[in-house]
Predict the structure.
Amino acid sequence: MPNSSYGVKFYLFFALALLTAPELVTRSQTREQLSRPVQSSPMVAQAPAAANSTDIFLKLAESVGQGIPAKRLIEYKLKNDPTGKARYWAVVDFNQNSTRKRFYIFDTQDKRVETYYVAHGKGSEGETDDGVADVFSNEEGSETSSLGIYRTLDEYVGGHGRSMRLQGLEPTNSNAYERAIVLHRADYVSEDFIRQTGRIGRSNGCLAVEPSVGDQLIDKLKNGAYIIAWKK
């Protein structure tokens, strides 16, 4: 008769092996996982925040010596029109002689500056006929240029062809619309005229520009761009 005690021991040993096998497998897997190098997720670089229109305008303006009027123009816009989107900004620098291209157009999308000739009013010339604007007024009939911040309005066709209305936004130019101070083209704004007279011609107070650039300036600036005319 077979030894019953031996059979019982064999059975118990077999059962214990079955019970501990999953634990051995689990421990083996854990050791394997711990021995593997940790795979780190790739780092994604954060793109720098895009500069807004006012920051680009100021940087461009400072590069051509027009930081002072640019800061005042930006301050006005942020206070009075903070949500408006502006691609083009403009500065008229009446510190410069009319023989200089003193009308600055700043394109904040393409990040470039363009300059153009621009006339001042007959009454702004003062006692001398030297191409320098010395006198400024907001009065009807003065035929002078007016300093201050403007906002462009709509275009129309008048005596000088395609033109653009302007709204004066400060006490120094608040009558611009009533005085019909506009941007228009004029034959007396040209390098030929400078060679003949030593200066460009003078307007009745309007921002008169070369005929060849009138259309493109109106296309860029109409319906809401800001212009500042300034002098120290």
